[in-house]
Specification:
Layout (H helix, E strand, L loop, with lengths): L3 H7 L10 H9 L9 E5 L4 H14 L4 E4 L11 E3 L2 E2 L2 H15 L3 H15 L4 E5 L14 E6 L7 H4 L3 H9 L7 E4 L5 H5 L5 E4 L3 H10 L16 E3 L2 E5 L3 H8 L7 E6 L6 H8 L5 E4 L10 H8 L5 E4 L3 H12 L4 E6 L1 H6 L9
Parallel strand pairs: 1-5, 1-6, 2-5, 6-7, 7-8, 10-14, 11-12, 11-14, 12-13
Antiparallel strand pairs: 2-3, 3-4, 9-10
């Protein structure tokens, strides 16, 4: 029998049709674990994982037992499901739901979501902070009775599923709100749409994680927490490893970089606006090593390189991510720096190598 990790990796990450039927059936078989605790539901285009982990960390400091569910992962599958800031035993968590998931034909994300929600029930958490995967209305996480919903921000992403405008996408994400909940918004422009969902109140913020925790507790919090996630903005000497999976993510990253002469090693998924992302990255380097991830959704390295040649003087196509990283290191010697960016799946594929780059 395949191991739990092998089995999870064998499942389709995308459903043939989005909907909540399978995940509801799966959770019903598992005894409705999501009913065992209150929740904070985090939706948005960028920054969801950071907001989720920060909210969980703030609540843990206040003495609560807290579950946190994020995606995708960089260091390993167990990174996605945490209790009190520690990865759970992934094999055990998946083992609890595998038989039911196989009977129902659940997708990879539906199974992972059910495993997380079940793990939180077993751990008897006081609250779960749950990040949505894609959108909101039809996302597998939209099974929660959340007291607090967070909308971090809205950018054009997954337009084939969520809509062609930011307003359409915002509506899909805010569809998780039910009457009487508190909505935390990182962008004030969505207050009117949020109000259509009849929330108890709407809170504006620039720090979604802290504000979500405060909204849940009903009081202001002081101090700071350390809730960094692998691959979001990691520095190793002058080198930077930061996933930026869409144009808005690249804009956010560029504003936080300390220099503008990186050798860039990047992979981008085929359903993203790769041209805009590459154009923006040209502001922080003139050398570009195009590569690809191990996912089916990846843009081929040669195609990415072709896009990059419009904006970079020096471009190389290296399909193997590990070799691409080595080539970027060579190009950066002796005094340059490497920026590894684009899809978080690239950071995942390179997770065993990143600490060796100096």
């Amino acid at each position: 029998m395949p191991s739990q990790v092998e089995w999870i990796e064998s499942l389709s990450p995308w459903p043939q049709e989005f909907g909540l039927g399978r995940v509801r059936a799966l959770l019903n078989e598992l005894g409705e674990p999501q009913r065992a605790y209150p929740a904070i539901h985090v939706v948005g285009t960028n920054g969801k994982s950071t907001a989720t982990r920060r909210a969980a960390a703030f609540l843990a400091v206040e003495g609560l037992r807290v579950g946190a569910y994020t995606s995708p992962h960089v260091s390993g599958w167990s990174e996605r499901i945490q209790v009190d800031g520690e990865d759970v035993d992934f094999d055990t968590a998946i083992g609890r739901v595998r038989a039911a998931a196989e009977r129902i034909g659940a997708t990879q994300f539906e199974t992972l979501t059910a495993a997380a929600l079940t793990e939180f029930a077993v751990a008897e958490v006081d609250v779960a902070v749950v990040e949505a995967g894609l959108g909101g209305r039809l996302d597998a996480t939209n099974v929660l009775d959340a007291g607090v919903v967070v909308l971090t921000n809205v950018s054009l992403d997954h337009t084939d599923v969520l809509g062609d405008t930011r307003e359409q996408i915002a509506k899909e994400k805010l569809a998780v709100v039910t009457p009487g909940e508190t909505v935390v918004v990182g962008e004030p422009e969505w207050e009117e749409l949020a109000r259509e969902r009849s929330p108890a109140r709407i809170v504006h913020t620039r720090d979604a994680g802290r504000t979500a925790a405060e909204a849940f507790l009903g009081r202001e919090l002081r101090g700071e927490v350390d809730a960094n996630l692998p691959g979001r903005l990691d520095f190793s000497g002058d080198n930077v490893f930061a996933g930026a999976h869409n144009p808005a993510g690249v804009d956010w990253l560029i504003a936080r970089l300390p220099r503008n002469n990186y050798v860039i090693c990047a992979a981008i998924l085929a359903d993203k606006d790769a041209r805009s992302m590459v154009e923006t990255l040209a502001a922080v380097g003139s050398s570009f090593v195009a590569t690809q991830t191990e996912t089916e959704r990846t843009l081929a390295a040669d195609e990415l390189a072709q896009l990059a040649r419009e904006f970079f003087a020096d471009v190389e196509s290296v399909p193997d991510a590990t070799t691409a990283l080595d080539r970027a290191r060579e190009r950066a010697r002796p005094d340059g720096a490497v920026l590894v960016t684009g899809s978080l799946y690239l950071l995942r594929d390179l997770s065993g190598r990143l600490e060796t780059v100096r």
